[in-house]
UniProtKB/TrEMBL annotation:
Keyword Manganese carried by entry: no
Protein name (record): 3-phosphoshikimate 1-carboxyvinyltransferase
HAMAP family reported in the protein's UniProt record: EPSP_synth
Lineage: Bacteria, Bacillati, Bacillota, Clostridia, Eubacteriales
Classification via InterPro entries: Enolpyruvate_Tfrase_dom (IPR001986), Enolpyruvate_Tfrase_sf (IPR036968), EPSP_synthase (IPR006264), EPSP_synthase_CS (IPR023193), RNA3'P_cycl/enolpyr_Trfase_a/b (IPR013792)
Homology family: Belongs to the EPSP synthase family.
Binding site for phosphoenolpyruvate: K20, G92, R120, Q163, R336, R378, K404
Gene designation per UniProt: aroA
Length: 419
């Protein structure tokens, strides 16, 4: 789908969809419970639907009616056996969370990824699974899992993806014995591990944490509270929050939790560092307004998903912005360092792509032009954000790619006032 985005400022209010990161976790732990529950989740993205589809294939019965999701858990006991096809689409969270969960269940699973997901890493998770009884093998565009995980002492590096750790934390409590999990190396996106810990506690799952080591009793039961509302998504909100920093009249984003454990909440402090006016209201709503923006130096290690909108904002900030430690962006839905640089450069930004980052020298305004999403939802939304800094419009190819994480994005964007 091709859309034309008029250049120039916008202002107003928007309510963002539910956090897909939290939704994945809530759905999985609800499906592993014993009692049917209802969850409330604003906006069902393709990624969330992928997790729902996979859990249904494993034996749960999950249905959606508007924002209400009804979950009937997997049958007990978890018998395993047989072969199950799990269509995880392009959702890295679905794949990386359910590899250990399916291993715990003893399911012979065939994961069916789409897009670039098959090329994205599952190491060292696959090695850890193999050491404990479940074998994950890539073959012919699929990932085949066999065997059953055993309780024991697990050890995994946090340097590639925190999703490996979260997946193990959601699987180990349901083993028939106690386990430990030790994290080694630098931990990327550590905030999302804290989100997993919070969700485990909400579901009554016990664990002890000492430094970087967890002790996890086996034989537990997940007891999520029915009626749980999934909080708003800071990753999706990042585009509108950055738009606010380019808007004289400002933009207010609603639906966010004031004390959220989402790592991308760090954007609020980053916007202040740029010089934007940021007001956090008691109900969690965040209002952002344009002030004189200045370039900053930023480590992307804990916040890779919000680097594209930050780069767009940097393109019209005074001075130079340096984004470093961002090599993980190369293994997303696109090579996001390359596609972010390509998008902004095509619109008139002065941007240099490095092996593990970006250097951006701010200009007064962008020109506009023709751009492609490159099959990446975050690049499509970054184009919309960049339009607020453009003298002319943007013709965007692949606008439908927002459906991966934010199906109502164009409706919400169009709902903002122009001028």
């Amino acid at each position: 789908m091709t859309v034309f985005i008029k250049g120039g400022q916008r202002w107003g209010e928007v309510t963002v969809p539910a956090s897909k990161s939290q939704a994945h976790r809530a759905l999985i732990l609800s499906a592993l419970g014993k009692t049917p529950v209802e969850l409330y989740c604003r906006g069902l993205s393709r990624d969330i639907k992928a997790t729902v589809d996979c859990l249904n294939s494993l034996g749960a019965r999950i249905t959606a009616d508007g924002d209400k999701i009804s979950v009937i858990p997997l049958p007990r006991p978890f018998l395993g056996g047989g072969r199950v096809s799990l269509s995880c689409a392009e959702s890295g969270s679905t794949l990386r969370f359910l590899l250990p969960v399916a291993g715990m269940l003893g399911v012979n699973a065939e994961f069916l990824p789409k897009g670039r997901l098959y090329e994205r890493p599952i190491s060292p998770l696959d090695g850890v699974l193999s050491e404990h009884g479940a074998e994950a093998v890539r073959e012919d565009g699929r990932i085949r899992l066999s065997g059953r995980l055993r309780p024991g002492d697990y050890r995994i590096s946090g340097e590639v993806s925190s999703q490996y750790i979260s997946g193990l934390l959601m699987a180990l409590p349901f083993m028939d014995g106690d386990s430990s999990l030790e994290i080694t190396g630098k931990t990327e996106s550590a905030g999302y591990i804290r989100m997993t810990e919070d969700m485990l506690r909400l579901c009554g799952i016990a664990f002890e944490k000492s430094g970087r080591r967890y002790f996890i009793p086996g034989g537990q039961t997940s007891r999520p509270e029915s009626g749980m509302a999934i909080e708003g998504d800071y990753s999706s909100a990042s585009f509108f929050l950055c738009m606010g920093a380019l808007s004289d009249r400002g933009i207010t984003v609603r639906g966010l939790l004031k004390d959220s454990s989402q790592g991308d909440r760090q954007l609020l402090e980053i916007l202040k560092e740029f010089g934007a006016e940021v007001e956090i209201k008691e109900d969690g709503a965040v209002a952002v307004r344009k002030r004189e923006l200045r370039g900053i130096t930023l480590d992307a290690g804990q916040i890779p998903d919000i680097i594209p909108p930050i780069a767009a904002l940097s393109s019209v900030a005074c001075g130079r912005t340096v984004i470093k430690n961002a090599s993980r962006l190369r293994i997303k839905e696109s090579d996001r360092l390359s596609t972010t640089a390509g998008l902004l450069s095509s619109l008139g930004a002065r941007i240099q792509e490095l092996d593990d980052g970006l250097i951006i020298d701010g200009v007064k305004s962008l020109a506009g032009g023709t751009a492609s999403s490159c099959g990446d939802h975050r690049i499509a939304m970054t184009a919309a954000l960049a339009s607020l800094a453009c003298d002319g419009g943007i013709t965007l190819l692949g606008a439908e790619d927002v459906n991966k994480s934010y199906p109502e994005f164009w409706r919400d964007f169009s709902g903002l006032s122009e001028g």
